[in-house]
Write a structure and sequence with these properties.
This protein has 215 residues and is an all-alpha fold. The protein has one domain. The longest helix has 28 residues.
Length: 215
């Protein structure tokens, strides 16, 4: 279905751009120079796919299609000069980010399956594709890691990649499996944004500190 593949490619590029913008915005909050903007924007945009390809021992996608790398650099430089604009539209960016998260998770899982990865590995690599760039962004920018926050983010990526792998294993056609899985991941992340949903937090029993539990 050429139309479906075209729509998926558009969402893939949109996700890359939004991820790069989110990385560059962290650089703006840290008042970095333009090199810092490019570093954070690029790490966020291509970090997850790079990790996936390295684990799969496959050609890293942006070395095969340098346009991805160029896009991250260009977007990061643009944000350096216009950071006040996306910052004032940050809520809108979060919704585009939700779409990119779901698309990256499904695309990462599909690539892993195509290269012969075990289904459980494909699910985890789908999650890594969608979230590792954000983790890199937070580490480099000295921000609280997205992986350790209670907001529903990694869970949405897990739903998207896990749903796609499960539907594929039971023989659902690719386009339907991808469409349903992207919609599921986006819906969960979107609901979390709209209603402030978070994951439940572990609470130690009264009278015992975390240090005592570790001992």
């Amino acid at each position: 279905m050429p139309a479906f593949d075209t729509a998926l490619a558009i969402l893939d590029w949109l996700g890359l751009v939004v991820f790069a913008v989110s990385g560059a915005l962290v650089a703006s909050r840290k008042e970095m120079d333009i090199v810092g903007f490019v570093l954070l924007g690029t790490a966020t945009g291509i970090g997850g796919g790079t990790l996936r390809d390295l684990i799969l021992d496959a050609p890293v996608f942006w070395t095969v299609e340098p346009g991805y790398l160029v896009a991250c650099v260009v977007v990061s430089c643009l944000v350096f000069f216009t950071a006040h604009v996306p910052q004032s539209r940050y809520r809108v960016l979060l919704w585009f980010d939700a779409a990119g998260l779901a698309v990256f998770a499904v695309a990462g899982a599909e690539k892993a399956l195509l290269l012969g990865a075990d289904p459980s590995v494909a699910i985890m690599l789908g999650v890594a594709t969608a979230t590792f760039g954000g983790i890199l962004r937070d580490v480099i920018g000295a921000e609280p890691s997205i992986a350790l926050r209670r907001e529903i983010y990694v869970t949405a990526a897990l739903l998207a990649s896990g749903g796609f792998v499960a539907l594929t294993l039971v023989g659902v056609p690719r386009e339907i499996a991808m469409g349903l899985s992207i919609a599921a991941g986006f819906s969960l992340r979107g609901a979390a944004l709209a209603f402030g949903w978070t994951m439940p937090r572990y609470k130690a029993r009264a009278g015992r500190s975390p240090d005592e539990i570790e001992r």
